[in-house]
Amino acid sequence: MPSYHHGNLRAALLAAAERGLREHGADQLSLRELAREAGVSHAAPRRHFADRQALLDALGEAGFARLDDELRAALTGAGPGFVPRLHAVAAAYLRFATEDAALLELMYARKHTEGADRLVAAAAAPFGLMNDLIIQGQTENILEPGDPQRVGIVFFATLQGIATLINGNLVAPDLLTGITETAVDQFLRGSRRR
Amino acid sequence: MPSYHHGNLRAALLAAAERGLREHGADQLSLRELAREAGVSHAAPRRHFADRQALLDALGEAGFARLDDELRAALTGAGPGFVPRLHAVAAAYLRFATEDAALLELMYARKHTEGADRLVAAAAAPFGLMNDLIIQGQTENILEPGDPQRVGIVFFATLQGIATLINGNLVAPDLLTGITETAVDQFLRGSRRR
DNA sequence: CACCATTGTTGTCACCGCATACATTGTTGA
DNA sequence: TCAACAATGTATGCGGTGACAACAATGGTG
Q: Which CATH number fits domain A51-191: 3.40.800.10, 2.40.240.20, 1.10.357.10, 3.40.50.1000?
């Protein structure tokens, strides 16, 4: 016999929302449906999220946290060399992006509310990881000197753009590996000191 | 006294939808509101669009057509030199992308319906333009030999990724010019024959 | 001019988000 | 230990939506 207090409703709603997002996309996510899945009344979610958009923003924030985790895990497995680390980050990014396409869309959607500040703040971690990696390349004289923030943003943008084209059915998924390697190769031979 | 037959309802709905998209974003677009603006009953739009998603797909298709027009116009104004043409295309892409951020989201959203085939087909034109530009660069020995499709897709992805970061408030808009120039510079110096 | 296709209208249903008022339980401080 | 308050539920209401079905009006065609 379930009690009146769920006890962990916010987390349960987010978990259900991630499943729903994966299966049906963001447009089909509904607070009422999530409430039914969690076994509470339809108004209960509004005690944990100001509105539907706030729940979507929370999903996006969790997405950037998980992206950061996966990029760091990829770096750990790649060893100390800059070039293998760059390849590892690119591969991990695109794996995350193509496996969780609907979440990616949420993460990068235009932000309408002030409540999206936490989402934007969460993005700083993977951006910082990329920045640090560029600085490593420059310190080791593999990359030319230059503004690491700009260089890192361009590389990050390239990965995100590739994911968008693949997820949007504008580029065939079987081209992914080749395009990713072309992207890293172009990035390196363009920034590599001569 | 308006007649029973609107006479040009499909075009009127699309025009109203573009205005609504620009002002409020895709999420706030509603068939009933568009019908009211066009002065017809709420069910009339369904005579021209199978459902709401079909209208959104039509907007995306028009977006790719307009993007292609703007890229070609930029090329016309850039003269024959490959490098100025590349810069012109990059600038025109990002101008379009940042001025019509909501439309851009629609163009690149994940496609759920079979009806999105026309949208994907419409994307072929700007992709083809980019492909042709890469071939020009390779023919003139400014770019290294290589698969022009892959190279063009990576460059296209980079521009789209930059637009996504800017439009998603993940990168400050005032960084746009510098990042775009860095992107073109990295692209050239990476693919430029040495 | 009749018939058919196209394109409208009216009405309905089920769903939704959001808001308000009230109810139940958990926590805290005296 | 208990009262007060906060947190977190429920019930109800409202206005809007998308999609669908049945019917109506007009335009085009043979």
A: 1.10.357.10
